[in-house]
Design brief:
Four Helix Bundle (Hemerythrin (Met), subunit A); single chain; 381 residues; eight-stranded mixed beta sheet
């Protein structure tokens, strides 16, 4: 885990439902009966308590090149080529290696000569999570194109990070990089060679002189009629503006409806649940019992989560019961619904209860969703 803010951060409790087998030892029998004990399947809910983590702020006095790196790192920089011709592309590779929040590192700032054309850096992330932290390397590739010839020096790349073990900020610097750029022979599409300018940048010759400006006064006269400015032109313009406004209002309403995620999920909950129930019924007829229980479980959880606008992380039996009871839903209906969800979880891992029991659970699921839909429609939230 990599905290992104300071203060006390609470990690919510997690829970899991397990199915275990408990031995039923028969007492008062002979010694040989101990080898023929029966076992009972028991469902057990295991809950891990919540954990509070305190995240301290970094100390003051960070260097200007510090961008949030925390851990222990090394820095390396090298050019893809030692010498190129003008207008040829090459890349500068800056690699940060070590252990810490390496997956969140930003590209270090590099000072290139003014005659270099610079493109966005490409990132290659080779970090991995091991032992509760991230380690590995992250390479930043800076594509550049020198636009003039000569000998150039790329200033050292600086990278600062906070060393947790030492408790201080540390700054790494690479060596200056030398690059020789030979005179290029690039030709423009018009077939005219590039001429070196006073600012060491290639100046493109157009191959044509400026056209002579005619200073004589031109005589203009009206010839025929034009659609622009006529009555039909303004009528058509008003119709286009009206149609555009109507389309804009319609699209704005549709956009607002789609942005209301809670309303969309609530309106589609019953339809999605019935689709999943239909799939579960088909799986039951095909005797695909594992897929049947999984689809039935998804139908029950998905319906109530959409109706209550709950995320997957907030879906728990206690939370669902509290929200339904707060909306004055019949407690017996709430208990039947949540109990049916637990029955689906239990029967997925329990021994086969038989075809009649599977059909009974399916019918109860259909009935429970229908009753819940009627109960929630009568309640004004």
């Amino acid at each position: 885990l990599l905290p992104q803010q300071t203060g006390e951060i609470r990690i919510d409790p997690s829970e899991i439902v397990c199915v275990i087998q408990v031995s039923n030892t028969r007492k008062g029998q002979s010694l040989l009966d101990e080898f023929f004990d029966s076992y009972q399947t028991v469902r057990k809910r295991v809950i891990a308590p919540a954990v509070t983590v305190r995240v301290n702020d970094l100390p003051a006095g960070a260097p200007p090149s510090f961008t949030g790196a925390v851990g222990k790192f090394t820095l390396q920089a090298n050019l893809g080529k030692d010498s190129v011709s003008a207008h040829d592309a090459l890349s500068l590779y800056v690699t940060v290696s070590g252990e810490g929040n390496i997956n969140l590192l930003e590209a270090p700032s590099v000072q290139f000569p003014p005659d270099f054309e610079i493109y966005d850096a490409k990132v290659t992330d080779n970090s991995r999570s091991t032992g509760g932290t991230f380690s590995g390397s992250k390479t930043f590739e800076y594509p550049v194109i020198p636009r003039s010839h000569g000998d150039f020096t790329i200033e050292p790349v600086t990278f600062s990070y906070y060393d947790i073990e030492a408790g201080v900020y540390k700054t790494l610097r690479t060596q200056p990089l030398e690059l020789k750029v030979a005179r290029g022979s690039q030709i423009t599409p018009a077939g005219v060679p590039l001429t070196a300018g006073t600012h060491r940048r290639a100046v493109e010759s157009l191959g044509d002189d400026i056209r002579y400006i005619n200073t004589a006064v031109q005589s203009w006269r009206t010839k025929g009629s034009y659609f622009t400015g006529s009555l039909s032109y303004f009528v058509a313009l008003l119709l286009i503006l009206g149609l555009t406004s109507g389309v804009y209002v319609l699209l704005d309403k549709r956009r607002a409806h789609r942005n209301d995620v809670v309303k969309v999920r609530n309106s589609r909950a019953n339809k999605v649940a019935r689709t999943r129930l239909k799939t579960a019924g088909m799986l039951l007829k095909q005797e695909h019992f594992e897929g049947y229980y999984e689809e039935l479980h998804r139908a029950l959880w998905g319906y109530i989560a959409d109706k209550l606008a709950l995320s997957q992380a907030d879906c728990s039996r206690e939370r669902v019961e509290d929200m339904l009871l707060s909306r004055n839903v019949d407690p017996h209906l709430v208990n039947d619904y949540t109990g049916l969800i637990e029955s689906c979880e239990f029967t997925r891992y329990a021994p086969d209860p038989g075809q009649l029991e599977k059909e009974r659970i399916f019918e109860k699921a259909v009935e429970a969703i229908s009753k819940m839909e009627q109960a929630l429609k009568q309640i004004v939230v």
